[in-house]
Amino acid sequence: MGRVDGSIAMVTGGAKGIGKATAEMLAADGAQVAVTNVDAQAGTETVNSIANAGGEAAFFEHDIAAGGNWERVVAATQDTFGAPDDVTYAAVHPTSEESKFVTGTELVLDGDFMAQ
C-alpha cells in the first residue's frame, strides 16, 4: 500500500524534470495524477510512462500564466478523477490571478517579490 493511496494529485509542470519525477512518484505511491504542462507531447509521454508502470494519470495541457486555464484544468481533473487532494507546483508563474484561484493567495517564487 502506497503513502498516498486513493488521493488525487495535480502536478503543474509535470511533463519534465522535477515535475515529471514528482508525478511518477505520486503515482507509484498510489495517487491518481493529473499531469499539466504546456508541452503536450512530453505530458503525454509522462502519462504513458506512469501507465506502463501500473499507475493512473491523465494529461491536461495547461499554461499556468494564461487566464482561465486554472478553472478548466481543475474541472477536467474533477471530471476525470474527482476533486484534487493535493496540488504540486513544479511550474509556477510569479504573482497572478490564476494562482489566487487555486491557493487563495498570490503565489510568488522570486526573490524580487513577496508572497501575500
Keywords for this entry:
disordered C terminus; 18% strand; Rossmann fold; alpha/beta; 4 helices
Short recap of the structure:
With 116 residues, the chain is an alpha/beta fold.
Overall average pLDDT: 80
Query: Which descriptor suits the 3D outline?
Result: globular
Q: CATH architecture, please?
A: 3-Layer(aba) Sandwich
CATH superfamily: NAD(P)-binding Rossmann-like Domain
Textual characterization of the structure:
The protein has 116 residues and is α/β, with parallel strands linked by helices. The chain has a single domain, classed as Rossmann fold (3-Layer(aba) Sandwich), CATH 3.40.50. Helix content is 38%, strand content 18%. It has 4 helices and 4 strands, in the order E-H-E-H-E-H-E-H. It has helices at residues 17-28, 40-52, 69-80, 97-103; strands spanning 8-12, 32-37, 56-61, 86-89. It has a 4-stranded parallel β-sheet, sandwiched between helices. The longest helix has 13 residues, at 40-52. The model is unreliable at 98-116 (pLDDT under 50).
Draw up the topology in text.
Blueprint: E1 8-12, H1 17-28, E2 32-37, H2 40-52, E3 56-61, H3 69-80, E4 86-89, H4 97-103
Parallel strand pairs: 1-2, 1-4, 2-3
Helix pairs in contact: 1-2
